[in-house]
Amino acid sequence: MKTFLVSFFLLFSINIFACKCAYEPNIEDSFKSADIVFIGNVYDINTSYKTGYWNIENSLSKVKIEKVYKSLGNDFKSIEITFFGQQFNSCDFIFTEKGKYLIFGYFDSDTTFFYTSHCSATQLTKNLDQNNYLLLEKLSQEYKSKQTENTETIELEDRYPHKDVTNLKLSNQQLSEEIEKQRTFFILIVSVLLVVIVFLIWRYRRRK
């Protein structure tokens, strides 16, 4: 009876908490929102991973990266990554079929796993046509060009700092100079005191 009630509740919950997307999944919007976009081969699916919460099954899927359209960064060199999907999260895309996919992935820094969503255009490559690949190439080139421009802007800002940064550097320099003056004054005072103490000791001994 308890198992029946739990199963009934889960089915009922799925209907209530069905995934609601902000837009109809499409390649262009998915590309913009994703951390990484690539063609990959899902070669291993493990759905036996369970949490302690009602023994709900989750999924760990291993994916070999074949072609990258959008990367996490220049230092991202991985050729294989793992995707995590939660059965309890209705928006999580859980891989149930091995094969080649176009994947719009998101990186979870807390778990270091990747995940993808039903609200993205993640799908088997057999569902794609030539126009889809052309669009991906176009979006990829635009993204790379934008990244190059951003890098050049950062380098320019480093070469010609913002006014606030310049003012901060000047303030730090003035503060350093002030500290150095105070340090010199302190050393002078201590030196004078030592001379006075030595003189007093000398006088005291002469009197004796």
Helicity level: 40-55%
Tally of domains: 2
Q: Report the β-strand fraction as a percent range.
A: 15-25%
What best-fitting shape do the alpha-carbon axes yield? elongated
Secondary-structure class: alpha+beta
Give the C-level CATH assignment of the largest domain: Mainly Beta
Main sheet attributes: strand count, strand direction, barrel closure? 6 strands, antiparallel
Mean pLDDT: 80
Radius of gyration: 32 Å
Number of DSSP-assigned strands:
6
CATH architecture of the largest domain: Beta Barrel
Return residue spans where pLDDT drops below 50 for at least 5 consecutive residues.
Answer: 1-16, 154-167
Helix count from the secondary structure assignment? 4
Succession of helices and strands: HHEEEEEEHH
Q: Report how far the terminal alpha carbons are from each other.
A: 106 Å
The CATH topology assignment of the largest domain is OB fold (Dihydrolipoamide Acetyltransferase, E2P)
Give an overview of the whole structure.
The chain is α+β, with helices and mostly antiparallel strands and 208 residues long. The protein folds into 2 domains: 138 residues, OB fold (Dihydrolipoamide Acetyltransferase, E2P) (Beta Barrel), CATH 2.40.50; 47 residues. 47% of the residues lie in helices and 24% in strands. The protein has 4 helices and 6 strands. Strands 1, 2, 3, 4, 5 and 6 form a 6-stranded antiparallel beta sheet that branches. A hairpin with a 6-residue loop joins β4 and β5. It is elongated, with a radius of gyration of 32 Å. The N and C termini lie far apart (106 Å).
